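INFO  loader      accepted 1 record
INFO  loader      residues=328
INFO  predictor   begin
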Amino acid sequence: MKIRFLGTSSGAPTLSRNVSGLAVGRRNSKAWYLVDCGDGTQRQILRAEVTLAQLQAVFITHVHGDHCYGLPGLLASASLAGRTRPLTLVGPRAVARLIEAASEFTGLHLAFEVVFLAVDESPLGVTLWQDEGVSVEARALSHRVPSFAYAFREALPRSGLDEGALQSLGVPRGPLWGDLLHGQAVTLPCGELIRPEQVLMRPARQRCIVVAGDNDRPDLLAGFGPVDAWVHEATYTEDVLAKVGPGSQHSTAARVADAARMSAVPHVVLTHFSPRYRDDPSQPRSLADVQAEARSRYQGALFMAHDGDSFELDAQGVLTQARHGWAR
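INFO  predictor   done
INFO  writer      dumping tokens
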């Protein structure tokens, strides 16, 4: 699995950061999924190794503008580019009303069907949507408006037969292979019993990445169970939140770190930083402060996202930053 950050700023863009947008993809596949679509996301997509033609689904975490204002424009651009295949759009019901209003007042006419799925009207904690590559589960978060996190779990390939093991055990090609593939033990002409577990190839490890919307209770992500990585907002540090006040209902680096440590999450990627934090560590308030606060409470693999950063989750569930962009 792989992810690419299209925008990592909170509320408003900066000279180096756009507002929220994240691409999720699969290794050796051009198919991809978009989580959130703040203003300017489609321009960020032009800089990434993805196309609107290969976009499988869009997941909006909540209806605040820095997460969805770019959606009508992205849909319009996909239509202008010749897309005719239906596109799944997942999000709170208010997202559908946003698209309906844009269509009414701007004359937006799409050449493809938008299949909308209201996450706030769907059962949570079960598979919300899936295709041949991933299944997606959603859970409710804590924010000023309904906000959700999405867990992307890759589809496991079907178990196959290990032909080398079959040959070494002397199982002749034919009906016995079919029985073993379907989980039935077989008896060889010599009388030896062969069990399916002796010849079935073990399925690959199912990897999972959770991408959260705005949320002042990172502990809610524990409901997904064991996962490989969290992508979570760290809008503030604790000292700034004390000045801003709890009404913002955003997380701090400390809160995310504490929740990740308690849930034994091995990888955390922080994003959605307030524009008050500068990239330059020599500034009075910088992202180095956010990173230091998280690191003081969490000893797992910690990453600070920047626009354009790509990460890959390998077969063993280890998340690393890709040095050469969106890996194929």
